[in-house]
Write a structure and sequence with these properties.
Layout (H helix, E strand, L loop, with lengths): L1 H20 L12 H23 L3 H38 L4 H32 L2 H25 L5
Helix pairs in contact: 1-2, 1-3, 1-5, 3-4
Length: about 160
C-alpha cells in the first residue's frame, strides 16, 4: 500500500498542483504533454487495480461480480477527478493572476461542494451494488481502500495548494 500511495501522491501532485501554482518559476510551470499525462494515468490505474486485487482476496465467483462494478466506480471517479482538475486549474489562474474576488471564491466553493456531493452520491450508488455482489466485509474493505487512496491524494493536494489570497 505504501508503494502505491507514494506513486499516486507523487504523480498526481506533480501533474496537477505543483505546475498550476508555480508563478515564480516558468520552467516549473511547464505542463506535461498529453502523452506524459496519459502514461502516468495508465500507470496509476494499473497500480491501483493491482493493489485492489491483492487486498481484496476475492474468490473467482466474487471477482467475476466485483470487477465490472470496480470499473463502473472508477469511471465515476474519473469524471469527478476531471471536475477537480478543472476546478484546480481555474483556481490556479486566479491565484497566479491575483484576480480572486468574492464572486469567484463563492463559485469555486459551490463547485467544490457539488463535487463532494456527487462523490457521496457515487458511493451511495455503488455500495448497494457491491453488497449484492460480494460479502459485506469485502465491500467495507474495498471502500476503505478507495477512501484511503483518495484521502492521501487529497492530503497531498491540500499540502501543495496555497490558501486563497
Amino acid at each position: 500500500m505504501k508503494q502505491i500511495t507514494a506513486i499516486l501522491v507523487f504523480i498526481l501532485g506533480s501533474l496537477v498542483a505543483l505546475p498550476a501554482f508555480s508563478a515564480d518559476n516558468p520552467a516549473a510551470a511547464q505542463k506535461p504533454t498529453q502523452e506524459e499525462v496519459q502514461i502516468a494515468l495508465d500507470k496509476i490505474k494499473a497500480d491501483k487495480k493491482f493493489l485492489t486485487s491483492s487486498e481484496m482476496q476475492l474468490t473467482d465467483a466474487e471477482a467475476k461480480a466485483f470487477w465490472p462494478l470496480y470499473d463502473e466506480y472508477q469511471a465515476g471517479l474519473q469524471q469527478l477527478n476531471q471536475r477537480i482538475q478543472t476546478l484546480l486549474t481555474e483556481y490556479a489562474g486566479y491565484y497566479r493572476n491575483q484576480t480572486m474576488n468574492d464572486e469567484k471564491a463563492n463559485k469555486l466553493l459551490a463547485d467544490m461542494m457539488a463535487i463532494e456531493k456527487d462523490e457521496l452520491a457515487l458511493k451511495q450508488t455503488i455500495v448497494p451494488k457491491l453488497q449484492r455482489a460480494i460479502p459485506g466485509v469485502k465491500v467495507a474493505r474495498y471502500m476503505q481502500i478507495e477512501n484511503k487512496m483518495r484521502a492521501l491524494v487529497k492530503f497531498q493536494l491540500a499540502d501543495k495548494i496555497p490558501l486563497v489570497r
